[in-house]
Amino acid sequence: MNNDEQFNNLREKLNEDKNWPQVYMFKFIIPAEIKKMALIEAKFSDEATITQKESSSGKYMSITVKEVMLSAEAVIDKYKDVATIEGVMAL
Question: SS3 for 35?
Answer without folding.
Answer: helix
